[in-house]
Amino acid sequence: MINVIGLGYIGLPTALMFAKSGVPVVGTDLNEELVGSLSKGELAFEEEGLEELFQNAKDNGIEFTTDYQESDTYIISVPTPYIPSTKKLDPKYVMKAVEKVLDVCHKGSTLIIESTISPGTIDKNIRPEIEKRGSIIGEDVHLVHAPERIIPGNMVYELEYNSRTIGVDNADIGKQVKDLYANFCNSEIIVTDIRSAEMSKVVENTYRDINIAFANELAKICREDNMDIYEIIRIANKHPRVNVLQPGPGVGGHCISVDPWFLVGDYPETTKLISAARYVNNSMPEHVLTRIRDIMKENKMFDTSKIGIYGLAYKEDVNDTRESPALQLLEKMDEQLVLGVKSFDPFINEKIVENQVTDFNEFLDGIEILIISTAHSHIKENLEMLSDKLILDTKNICPSERAYKL
Ligand code: SAJ
Fold this sequence. Notes:
The protein is α/β, with parallel strands linked by helices. It folds into 2 domains: 2-198, 3-Layer(aba) Sandwich (Rossmann fold); 207-405, Rossmann fold. The chain has helices at residues 11-20, 32-39, 50-59, 92-104, 121-132, 155-161, 171-181, 194-224, 229-236, 259-266, 272-282, 284-298, 325-335, 360-364, 377-380, and strands spanning 2-5, 25-28, 63-65, 73-76, 109-113, 141-145, 164-168, 189-193, 307-310, 342-344, 369-372, 390-393, 404-405. The protein has an 8-stranded mixed beta sheet with strand order 3-2-1-4-5-6-7-8, sandwiched between helices. The chain has a 5-stranded parallel beta sheet with strand order 10-9-11-12-13. Strand 1, helix 1 and strand 2 (25-28) form a beta-alpha-beta unit. The structure holds ligand SAJ.
């Protein structure tokens, strides 16, 4: 049996995938409300194919509880935030989960960490905790790092078709864990050492962050001299070795906007490029606000309550608002007294910010400048409803003659 610890965006789909493929699974989470609703058959978030996967997993007997189970295999997928002042990983949730697993596991159990951790966390934090208890790693408990790699919005597909990394201390455990994931993973499963598994995961997200920062910096350069960033990227990307990503209102989510900081926190002297990329991406909400001011000035508009922000989620077609650029933009607006701004997101029905409306028509009513900050399919399908508005399109979804761009 596998005991999956942490039933959030990663732990839950992973638990369901194992259960669907016939492996007995118990999912554990400290959040009683979440466990209650999962037990009643209610999902906390939407994902393509997740409902069906949930049904399959329930048919195969998956259970949910707040208790840690005695088991031979554990998968830990709890949040790994960073400490804002030092930028280092805050391992508190992972450590709590490890401690609780060690309280209940039996001799020879395998403890798989799926949460993203900074390189060296297993050596510096987790091994000492196990050894402190007098347990021998490799005999009493086996340690594995199998970092998740699935992208919100396409998780169920990517669980099956993305390649995976399994970091281990010895080849036998590597083989066992590889066979376990092969129950549902139809792609290459690479077995490596633990440090390489930790580092490669952080490298993947840092790579994307740096490349998005490049696109964002180019957008700012182009804005200064009135060049068309999208045309320039389109042409540059015809080169066989160039693939510039897309600029946007900032980088959100719990992954790409967080993981590069782990490297900055641990290697402050070396990470010039990585930290610059973080600062560039974090500067984008301010750039959007400058663009809003430009548009207001150009159109002689002064009433900020006629501004509407479309999209609060950090990216298209998800309801996740963690580190969302739109929320950062609203915060900046508050600080700079750009007040009364309305907002709307079709994926978010509960009110999370002031002046948020949950009905699209009500949102559009009275809005003169619409900021598209998230490219949900919903807005792409309703562009004709915006014909009487000035649009600041930070995601390049409108024809260029219809909208201001970044
Ligand atoms: N973004 C841009 N321009 C782009 C691409 C993305 O501005 O060209 C923005 C998005 O709008 C969003 C942010 O970047 O705000 C991040 O979105 P994303 O779709 O690039 O990635 P995440 O954070 O949803 O998921 C990432 C993925 N990592 C990589 O692609 C290397 C995913 O595979 C990881 O599993 C996930 O992080 C994670 O959990 O670590």
